[in-house]
Structures are given as C-alpha cells and as structure tokens.
Write a structure and sequence with these properties.
globular
Length: 120
C-alpha cells in the first residue's frame, strides 16, 4: 500500500526554522520526482519546491527561493523541506507529492498534509 506521510509541521515564529519530512512507502522511491505543495485558507494549492528523480535537479517557487530547501534521502525514502526565515504568508497546509518520473504522465500521489503556522 502506497503511503506518503508528512511530519514536522507546527507553530514557528517568523525568522525561525522548521524542517518538514515526508516518508514514502509502497513505491520505488528512486523512480519518483518529489515535491512539496502548500494550500492556504481560501487559496489554491501551489507548488513550493521539487526535486527530480535521477537528476536531483531542484526547482523553487519565487516566493521561497533562498529561504526553503528541498532534498531527498533515497535510502530512507524520505524527502525533506527546510523552511528558513519563514514568514506569516508561508502559513499553509504543506502536502507531499510524488510523481512517477518514468513516464510523461506518470502516476501521482499525495500525502494528507501537515499544518505550518508562522506567527509571533
């Protein structure tokens, strides 16, 4: 059974730091490009960061460039998101996303999400 389980969310002060984790199971992790998305109340879900399978190339939303960092541990089948200097506008539910990189329209999977609240 495929699962993506996020953890590490919570309350963080502006300027602090937080690390999100997404543990994957039930898939061949190295075949999947991994991403973090977020959705704030009343807003559409948006892409935060991606790390490709095979090439490990990363891509970030302009709003988080230089503050957030994504990396993956293929041995542990886990993808991480380090959130440095978070801002109140980063408050959202953060979702883990996996896409099978072996095909152009590869299967995609979502985690349930973890809440991140940035507040003094």
């Amino acid at each position: 059974q495929l699962q993506l389980v996020e953890s590490g969310g919570g309350l963080v002060q502006p300027g602090g730091s937080l690390r999100l984790s997404c543990a994957a199971s039930g898939l061949t992790f190295t075949d999947y490009s991994m991403s973090w998305y977020r959705q704030a109340p009343g807003k559409e879900r948006e892409l935060v960061a991606t790390i490709d399978a095979f090439s490990y190339r990363t891509n970030y939303a302009d709003s988080v460039k230089g503050r957030f960092f994504i990396w993956r541990d293929d041995v542990e089948s886990t993808v991480y998101l380090r959130m440095n200097s978070p801002k109140p506008q980063d408050t959202a539910v953060y979702h883990c996303h996996a896409r099978d990189a072996r095909a152009i329209s590869g299967a995609v999977y979502w985690g349930q999400g973890t809440q991140v609240t940035v507040s003094p």
